[in-house]
Predict the 3D structure of the following.
Amino acid sequence: MINNDDIEQRTAAQEAEESNAYVRSVVDKTYEYGFTTDVETEVIDRGLTEDTVRLISQKKGEPDWLLEFRLKSFRYWQTQEQPTWGHLQLPDIDYQAISYYADPTAKKKSGPKSLEEIDPELMKTFDKLGIPLEERLALSGTAVDAVMDSVSVKTTFREKLAEQGIIFCSISEAVRQHPELVRKYLGSVVPYRDNFFAALNSAVFSDGSFVYIPKGVRCPMELSTYFRINAQGTGQFERTLIVCDEDAYVSYLEGCTAPMRDENQLHAAIVEIVVEARAEVKYSTVQNWYPGDKDGRGGVLNLVTKRGLLRGQDSKLSWTQVETGSAITWKYPSCVLAGEGSQAEFYSVAVTNNHQQADTGTKMIHLAPRTRSTIISKGISAGHSQNSYRGLVRVAAKAEGARNYSSCDSLLLSSTCGAHTFPYMDVENPTAVVEHEATTSKISEDQLFYCQQRGIPQEEAVGLIVNGYAKDVLQKLPMEFAVEAQKLLSVSLEGTVG
Amino acid sequence: MQNSQAAKVTAPSQAGRAGGESQYLDLFRSERALIDAHSLPELNALRDEAAATFERLGFPTRKVERYRYTDVAAAFAPNYGLNLSRLRIPANPYEAFRCDVPNLSTSVYFVVNDQLYKEALPKAKLPEGVVVDSQLRSARLDGQPSTLAPDPITALNAMLGQDGLLIYIPAGVRVERPIQVVNILRSAVPLMVNRRVQIIAEAGAEVQLLFCDHAADDQDFLATQVVDVQVGEGAHVEIYELEETHARCRRFSNLTADVAAGGHLTHATLTLTCGITRNQTDVVLSGKGASVNLYGCAITDGQQHVDNNTLIDHRAPGCQSRELYKYVVDEQSTGAFAGRVLVREEAQQTESQETNANLVCTPEARMYTQPMLEIYADDVQCSHGSTVGQLNDDALFYMRQRGISEAEARLLLKQAFASEVINQIALVPLRDRLHYLIDKRFRGELSHCTSCRMCGKGKI
């Protein structure tokens, strides 16, 4: 008996050592997607003044009402201070040291007319990222509005979508061609006074995507945009506006990888989604921006305002996010459930490693009767990272029979990281049912033991368990995204654990 | 009699901006000599620092995270009197008052406002070395209470507080009979009371404490209370706080506790009737294997407001914490619960469980809940759950099918809901009594103050 115990103990110790060795090897991996493309970029001078805002507007040839919107936002932004309430160590951002506009296609003023005209360097960048442009487009059936820095380089499948009356183009183009739509919806979900970063974005947003799905149209393919931050020292301020009219459906994918850089890069985007009656929008994100090096130097600051307004009856909005990158992630994709019987979902996997910090979650604001929302959040922290879930579920007095279920789990993979949960529940209606549950733990030794008993090596077992842990969220991702998400997770998630 | 009493009670200055911090700071500065003269050097020594802290922090606004659910400035704004010259309030609690938790075989002490009523001490002797006395006579203060972050209410209490209670259990002593302290608010004019309570249980000591809060006059009361609990190694302390005051009472209680290795603390807050109540409970588990259970039950209606704010700080390995808070919010009342569990890097093998369940009964009632986990260690098992909802329709239907009236069925379900907390109470007679009280409370009988002989009419 005694001997057996000894053996078991030793084996456990050895295994622990082996798994540690593997963890170390993976932790030591460098960022695989870090590279810089040498593209000629027209960058305007650093600094932010009213003149900068006017210059951006002028460069883009915008109408007066949009310039007014920008200036209003800018003046409001000047009166605001950067918020500090997040569970984050946000470095001081010198807003005057950032260039607010970079245009990789400026040298071809008229814009690329065919594939050959696109900067070959740029095409190589996309190749490295595996973006399915060109032939791959047809195979994957994905329309890509590729955003590199600030101006849309290429929009594909436009014609095919246009046949059904779907508008999928850059915001700048939408301003020119569909000003009435943009004017009606821009700032209607995230007003410029919403928060500090929203005001900044409203003042200096450079480009982004615009999607309009007309009544009763089911978008025949997944729409996606790949964001990349490329030119050094330029903040990227996209603005995405998705309008899904009555009975329409769209699934929108957003994926990001950014090249390696030493200084922090600011990313303050706004995503606005309007969902009309009986319409459905699925918005999926895979975010893998440069997280900084092992010692926490550099990395992207991802400070984003995302919100959907479920205006119509029985409308539906679903946010799915896989967050593996960025030095600091501070965002709360939210839903305002204003239409009776509307449904909202939020699925999130947030992985932090090394010195990454994430304070992310969602807000579900139930304003109308019979509204329902689900929150599934999975946090995984490793290294010296800090991973927080912060969520608000508010049930207004008129939201009869509102229902919310929230579940936030955290997995801790090192003794130096942190996992935190800050749920807020404000309930003002007696017929509402709001539930929240959360757990924080490390991988269950029992589960590991069970797998190992059945001949599964520890490393695989950990992979299995972690995969199972995140499965609820991963299976919500559209098929087209599965490859990239898995690739990212294998680097950032499974690897780290064991 | 009442007139003369009113005349001698010192009123805070009206000179400062109404309701602001200045009315308290001005009072403190102008009446400093009087405050000091009727207190003791240990407490006086803390005042300057406390005043500076209070002046710096001011009353917390709703932007201060821990105070976001309670409007502190509004509660402190009215002009209350303070009994700075320590007049004895003529009342024999035995005659005037009968507590709702009688016959527990407890050693009963009465505290009128902030003074121990020494004319009515229990006859049974406490074990050798155990002290239950006024701070004035036997203070063992060694500095400010161990708050984790400077707190404006704690500072205000230290600035103006003149007396309170000391409960001291020497090492290895087991107090068989529970010690019951009945806090009575008693005044003919609006009164502010600042109590300082210190509970020290040395290594291996065991004690059960029951605090019952009552208001004996239909008057505006503002009570701040700072309770400092030290649980020594292997000591076992149970503290039960039962509040049965009325709609004109405002209570701000800040409890800080430090639990040493192997020590255990159980703290339960039961709010049956009140006006505005805010209980802040901060527990530090500083020694290996320490454990804490926090329980809370609040039943609110009318315009009542109950805010329980807890922080459990796991600083040592192998500690356990358990929290269970339940609210039944009815009519236009407001309930708030914010519980934060902090697990520091060195606190491996932590087990923590936090549960908050709430029943919201009317469209005007409000419930805010915020169960937070902040974890920096990896070998932990922490969970929290929170629900807000209403009574189960199936269960109601089942009972109605069996001929139980809807009102009665609702009552039964609410009772069952609340009794999960009550069942955690180790003090069996108290548990039984609380079941009875909660039943009465749900039937709306407690608010009639049946237990109090001087109810409403002011017959003393």
User: Anything to note?
Assistant: Chain A is about 30% helix and 30% strand.
